[in-house]
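Try it yourself: sequence plus 3-methyl-2-oxobutanoic acid, in.
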Amino acid sequence: MENNTTANRRIRIFDTTLRDGEQAPGASLYPEEKIRIARQLALMGIDTIEPGFPISSPGDFQAVQQISRELQGVEICGFARAVKADIDAAVKATQDAASRRIHMFLSSSDIHLDFQLRKSRQQVVEMARAMVGYAKQFVDRIEFSPMDATRTGDEFLFEVLEAVIAEGATILNIPDTVGYALPEEYGAMFRRVRQSVRGGDTVEYSAHCHNDLGLAVANSLAAIAAGVTHVEVTVNGVGERAGNCSLEELVMAIETRKHSMGVETGIVTSEIFNTSKMVSRIMGFPIAYNKPIVGRNAFQHEAGIHQDGLLKNRNTYEIMDPEKLGIPRSMIILGKHSGRHALKHRVGQFGIELTGEELDSLYTRFKEKADEQKMVTDDQLMELVGSTVDGQME
Ligand code: KIV
Ligand code: ZN
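Structure, out:
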């Protein structure tokens, strides 16, 4: 790792697991469940929590209200469409928060204007202007999201953004709502906005990426490189369709190269695994075995060459220390790809010392067993040891 003498730029992590993440089909949460998850998010060092959509149901209103009252060390975000009733509900639900923002969204792409909003561009600019002005009477920090921004032409996008800045929006979140952008496109869009939008140098910028092409983390990193200081994420990447930018992947991409990137987050990485497990359990969403960072296989090694290297020095095949993520230890999986060194190591972990001859004989029998089935468990290994090496088990 390079050494860095200047201070890193702080990237603020905005968690929307309880709002956008909850929009994943089947992921709906009860208020008590949201409160438990929000406590864990706060413990993990999240900067801003978006706990729900207050107008959407009495339960969501209550969850946002209770989280605002209880979690005084975290900024709470009230989510709203650009309509007065939504803004009123978001303002009311978050009024006891120690610090808060209102996050207002309104579509900007032609396809959304024509088929969803059924409004003209002029009407959209007027709505955005009027509703940001309305919300600004109650809350100072106003985040504005032009929905489907990455499929909106620059000219109209800039017009909307200039209008909301003039009314007092303080954070511009420019979402890739349908997960369409490529990293270089998404980064370039932020650069153009920062350079060309009137007042664009007076506000903060936020990225919000969906994962339809598997690029949500890459796009968020490109946005950071383009100067964004807030990134919107969800735990385990849950969210609409293919989900949102995954918190754990983004944070660890930064963590593993924070000196060379010159940025850092305030996330307590040792809470990442607990948080991931909790969200998966409560939402009833299993985590894919091969999911980066938190998947079952993320720190397991089966190939003999890898196991051998790992036993000599973990850095040969691991770029992160699983213990720093709250994951108990990296595991060597014994299967047909495992070598003698790994077998000897695992048997040694059970306090069993084998002679070279005994190890040869165990290795042959182990390979036969591994060919019959995909993995050899510790119990099966001990049976093999017992039947191979008389007296060693006592
Ligand atoms: O994906 C999206 O556009 C959103 C916004 C409303 C921010 O979730
Ligand atoms: Zn979204």
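One thing you can check immediately is this: The chain has 15 helices and twelve strands.
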